[in-house]
Amino acid sequence: MSLLQHDHDPKADAPGGGTPEEVAPAVRACPTCQAELADGQDWCLNCGQAQPGRLANLPGKRAAVTVLALTTVLVGGAVAASYAALQDGSAAPGSTQLAQVSAAEPAAPVPAPATDPAASSALPAAPTTSAPADPGGTLPDTSSTPATPTPATPTPTPSTPSSSGSSTSSGTSTSSGSTGTSGSSTDSTADTRTSTTPTETAPTAIKLDGSAAALYDPYTRNTATGDVTKTLDADPGTSFPITVAPGSGSIGAGVTVDFGKTRGIREIDLTTKTPGFKVEVYATDSDELPPDVLDTRWAHLKDVTDVGTGAGNKQIISLGSGTTKYRHVLLWFTAPPPDGLTVRVSELKLLG
Q1: What is the number of other CB atoms lying within 10 angstroms of the CB of residue 325?
Q2: 199-237 burial by CB neighbour count: b if 16+ within 10 A, else e?
Q3: What pairs with residue 269 in β-bridges?
Q4: Residues contacting residue 187 through CB under 8 Å, at least 6 positions apart
Q5: How far apart (Å, rounded) are the C-alpha atoms in residues 242 and 223?
Q6: How many other CB atoms are found less than 10 A from the CB of residue 153?
Q7: Has residue 137 got a pLDDT over 50?
Q8: Which CATH number among 2.60.120.260, 3.30.2320.30, 2.40.50.100, 2.160.20.10 corresponds to the domain 210-351?
Q9: Which of 20, 64, 143, 308 qualifies as a cystine partner to 272, CB 3.0-4.6 A?
């Protein structure tokens, strides 16, 4: 057993029984630029290339390379399809074709308007500025360009040839709405204004027969007898009297006129043979006469004194525009004339 166990002599394994040669360690170099790399160096400091070694053995590198390769293929396919669609001039169904925006061309300068020499001498010329073209092909920013005011210049009015064939003056003269021409003056505008104020028409007589008139004596004060239709017979020679008893200070009776329907009344013309008395005018729209003058259905219209003291013993009583319509009118005599106790009505005319 001791014969088999002996120390191994490395020199015995060397050829020729000599000492084995020492092998120099291998020097790492970058496969790209052949620069020398230190032990454990993963990146080339000369060209920046990653070196094979620990990075190649990192877990998940194969999956990352696979994903990167698939992404590259998909992007390349999309780019190829887009290029083919643009070359054919039509986009794929469901896709949106983007419009190509060309670079904006510089706007042509606007020529300055023609001005009158006389006006241009008075107004200073406004400087015109134009925005320079954008070398980068982008649209110019118009918000930063100030607007250039254009001075107002008078526009010359061309002369109008005369209808008679003669030459006209170089200017247009406006005087009272007419245009001046050689040898003639024509009114160029017509007065089309119309008056909106209604024309006041004169009152017209209301046709009434004698039966429309009646004595109104609610207090039984009249002591005379007569025909009341004489007040509407259009004969000033006849009359109808109303007389009160001696010692009475007032008349207290009157004459009513029935229109037969409601209508407007504007004027009463009364002729008398006993001037100087006083009368009060009432009216009502009731179909029946109120029983006395104090009834509230009577509307008081007017009071007149010294009736018939004018020319021809005629009194005109104006009652307004006649917009209110009445059925009956009452002439209520109150104060007698200065020379007696009788009031005589020769003629009544009612106008509407």
Answers
A1: 14
A2: eeeebeebebeeebbbebeeeebbeeebebebbbbeeee
A3: 316, 349
A4: 177, 178
A5: 7
A6: 13
A7: no
A8: 2.60.120.260
A9: 308
Q: Has residue 250 got a pLDDT over 80?
A: yes
| Alpha carbon distance 84, 92 (integer Å) | 10
Angle at 185 between CA 180 and CA 187, to 5 degrees: 100
Which amino acid, one-letter code, is at 12? A
Specify the pTM: 0.46
Residue 302 burial (C-beta neighbours within 10 Å; 0-12, 13-18, 19+): middle
Residues sharing a CB contact under 8 Å with residue 289, sequence separation 6 or more, in sequence order: 216, 256, 328
Q: How confident is the model at residue 148 (pLDDT cuts 50, 70, 90)?
A: low
Please give the Cα distance from 198 to 148 (Å, whole number).
57
Q: What confidence tens digit (pLDDT) does each residue in 80-126 have?
A: 888 888 877 554 444 444 445 444 455 555 555 555 545 444 454 55
- Residue 253's Cβ-count burial label (10 Å; 0-12, 13-18, 19+) is buried
Q: What is the pLDDT of residue 155?
A: 56
Say which residues have a Cβ less than 8 Å from residue 176's Cβ, sequence separation at least 6: none
| Inter-CA distances, 5 with 1, 2, 9, Å | 7, 5, 12
